[in-house]
TrEMBL record:
PANTHER family (alphabetical): MAJOR FACILITATOR SUPERFAMILY PROTEIN-RELATED, SOLUTE CARRIER FAMILY 49 MEMBER A3
Compositional bias annotation for Basic and acidic residues: 493-507
Membrane topology listed for this record: Multi-pass membrane protein
Transmembrane segments: 75-95, 115-135, 166-185, 233-254, 291-310, 330-349, 356-377, 383-409, 421-438, 458-478
Major facilitator superfamily (MFS) profile domain residues: 77-482
Name of the protein this chain belongs to: Major facilitator superfamily (MFS) profile domain-containing protein
InterPro entries: FLVCR1-2_SLC49-like, MFS, MFS_dom, MFS_trans_sf
Gene3D superfamilies (alphabetical): MFS general substrate transporter like domains
Region (Disordered): 493-516
Signal peptide residue numbers: none
Keyword Protease: no
Pfam family for this entry, one: MFS_1
Localization of this protein: Membrane
Length: 516
């Protein structure tokens, strides 16, 4: 019997795991002390590890049994995460595809309009420590509710500023929405770990995480059609505010946690003890001392940062060469939609075959090379050229996101998924804001050929992308193959085997009793 088998509804057969004196929970008594199972990545058998083992043992003795099961209601919360990530990203990018029109409406410069995107990304970084607290101490539902409240207030303040043509009020509303983003963008790994079994986590993480750039695709595509004159700016903000309101309200009705865990995950069993400040500090220490974390974190942050900057500046990159705002909006949509389709195909395959590392080794060089090739795309004035490069860049970038997030959870188990996810996204948003400022500063003046071109910015983007490319390619080499083991998956497999063995022994004992 498969210990991770998913059931159609709550009335179907549950998977019991008996505990008590001499019984097992996920791992046998001998393997409970096994450093392979309990030791965080990159660490030895420390006092913290032994303390974790003792905590597990203490908690096991207080339960009679745990039933592993997945519930249909998990899709309600997942759908809510998808909606909120779409809206919050749409808010971020709304003015970027119509930057020149927005600048005309607010009587300001395109650089000032760029700051709406930049400030949004910096606000993400400021809110990240509070995201740690919300996800680790109170779980994804609290995080989702906080995001919804900030999203509601921020959007209507932003509309008030746009309607009255006060740019400062618009910026304040944008900052509040920026504070909302980390609470939903960092939540997917925690939510999938809480509600989904091993056979569905990567797909769930992909759906929730990649809905964020899908919102950016909608903004890239729809904003140019909504805004054809400066006077239409307030109405585009109004429509997004209404959509945000509709998306936010259901957040208050999603379930907090499942009645029983979906799989024999030790972090789930320790949910009541793990979210202390000391545990978060310990997880941060484990991540900081893990070479593998840095080999993944640095390129992830750089590539997410460049995606944010590239998406925000795409109109300004293409416009000097004769492309229209509509052309730039479609290019941005192609970048994201092709990426989403790719992720929709690769994520279930990763769930089934667990080829995280090989996918990373293939996707990272592709991203770096596409940034290099794009340097030569705008001067050609060829729309197909731009679309093809954007499609390939999107496919590699979007396929990479859920794979990296789940890969880190696997190799750093049993650290909290919220910590690694929040840090990765925070790094990407911080670098995104910095890259927008740097690339805007590299824009040529009126003396450029053509004027205001961003050729130097594209060179900067490609060079940095190529510099960080070798880092993840080193994963598993130089005698560190054991540090990229999928520890969470191995633990669950061992748990399933041990449970089936115990059930078989119980059946044999019962048969012997009946026979005598």
């Amino acid at each position: 019997m498969n210990a991770y088998e998913e059931h159609a509804d709550e009335d179907e057969q549950r998977q019991p795991l008996m505990m008590g004196s001499g019984a097992k929970v996920g791992v046998s008594a001998p393997s409970m002390s096994n450093a392979q199972t309990l030791r965080p990545a990159g660490s030895g058998e420390t006092a913290s590890t032994r303390g974790l083992t003792r905590t597990i043992s203490g908690r096991l003795s207080t339960h009679s049994q745990v039933k592993f099961k997945v519930y249909k209601r998990r899709f309600f919360g997942l759908f809510q995460l998808v909606l909120l990530n779409i809206v919050v990203s749409w808010d971020w990018i709304a003015f970027a595809p119509v930057s020149s029109t927005a600048a005309a409406y607010f009587n300001t410069t395109e650089s000032a309009i760029n700051w709406l995107s930049t400030a949004f990304l910096f606000a993400f970084v400021v809110a990240t420590p509070f995201t740690f607290w919300a996800l680790s101490k109170h779980g994804p539902k609290t995080s989702i509710i906080i995001s919804s409240c900030l999203l509601l207030v921020g959007n209507w303040i932003k509309f008030a500023g746009a309607k009255s043509n006060i740019f400062g009020v618009v910026m304040f509303g944008q900052l509040l929405i920026g504070f909302a983003q980390p609470f939903v963008l960092a939540a997917p790994t925690t939510y999938s770990d809480l509600w989904f079994s091993a056979s569905g986590r990567t797909t769930a993480t992909a759906l929730a995480s990649l809905s964020n750039p899908f919102g950016a695709a909608l903004g890239q595509l729809i904003s140019p059609f909504w805004v054809t004159t400066p006077a239409e700016i307030p109405y585009s903000v109004l429509w997004v505010s209404i959509i945000a309101t509709v998306a936010a309200v259901p957040s208050f009705f999603i379930p907090r946690k499942p009645p029983s865990p979906p799989a024999p995950n030790m972090e789930m069993l320790l949910a009541a003890d793990h979210p202390s400040a000391n545990s978060i500090k310990h997880d941060l220490h484990v991540l900081a001392s893990s070479v593998e974390f840095w080999l993944v974190f640095i390129p992830f942050a750089v590539y997410v940062g460049f995606f944010n900057a590239f998406s925000s500046l795409l109109n300004q990159i293409l416009e000097p060469y004769g492309f229209s705002e509509d052309d730039a909006g479609i290019a941005g949509a192609v970048l994201i939609v092709v990426g989403l389709v790719t992720a929709a195909i690769t994520s279930p395959l990763n769930d089934k075959y667990k080829f995280y590392l090989w996918f990373i080794r293939a996707a990272v060089p592709t991203i770096a090379v596409m940034y290099l090739i794009f340097i030569f795309a705008p001067p050609t004035s060829s729309i197909p050229y731009v679309y093809v490069v954007c499609a390939l860049l999107g496919a590699a970038s979007f396929g990479l996101v859920p794979v990296v997030l789940e890969f880190l959870v696997e190799i750093l188990h049993p650290t909290s998924p919220s910590v690694s996810s929040s840090l990765c996204w925070s790094g990407g948003q911080l670098l995104g804001g910095i890259f927008i400022v740097v690339m805007d500063a590299l824009k040529s003046g009126d003396e450029g050929r053509p004027p205001a071109n961003m050729h130097r910015a594209l060179i900067f983007q490609a060079v940095v992308a190529l510099i960080v490319m070798p880092l993840p390619l080193c994963l598993g080499f130089f005698g560190r193959k054991g540090m990229v083991r999928l520890k969470r998956w191995e633990n669950e497999q061992a748990s399933a085997t041990e449970r089936d063995r115990d059930l078989h022994a119980d059946d044999m004992e019962s048969a012997d009793t009946l026979g005598s």
